[in-house]
Design goal:
The chain has about 140 residues and is mainly alpha-helical. The chain is built from five helices and no strands. Helix 1 runs antiparallel to helix 2 and helix 2 packs across helix 3. The longest helix has 30 residues.
């Protein structure tokens, strides 16, 4: 097992990096939509504001979860796994729509993050010796 400082296994470092990258991308895209909404002429102002807000809030939330994984905080595993599970149908839909440049990297990122989060090393670091809460 690759291990870094503070008892964080390498698997959690990789998972945190993937979630941080997803969070930064969502934040950047949300910011882009916000700027385009302000300086452009959106067809539907309310939808543009909602999409921008969702991107920014989602990006910040992913960064927060990535930070929790980086610090090896137990609460961060659930949201990290759920967001990756939700990313898979989105990615598959993008691939089915021939948006391979977006769908394939998203599938790859989600699968890498899920595998890293569900390895025994990550389970042990976040949940305890046998995966049971408080069993350290």
């Amino acid at each position: 097992m690759i291990s870094s400082s503070a008892g964080r296994p390498g698997t959690l470092t990789v998972a945190a990096a993937v979630l941080a990258a997803e969070g930064l991308l969502a934040l950047a895209l949300g910011g882009y939509v916000a700027v385009e909404t302000v300086i452009g002429e959106p067809t539907d102002l309310i939808t543009s504001i909602a999409v921008a807000g969702f991107g920014v809030v989602g990006g910040v939330a992913l960064l927060w979860v990535a930070w929790g994984l980086w610090l090896v905080l137990r609460w961060s595993r659930g949201p990290a796994v759920v967001t990756q599970i939700f990313a898979l149908p989105v990615a598959i839909s993008l691939i089915q729509s021939a948006q391979y440049a977006y769908g394939v990297p998203l599938v790859a990122a989600a699968v890498v993050a899920l595998v890293m989060l569900l390895t025994p090393a990550s389970t042990h670091a976040l949940m305890g010796e046998d995966g049971a809460p408080g069993a350290s």
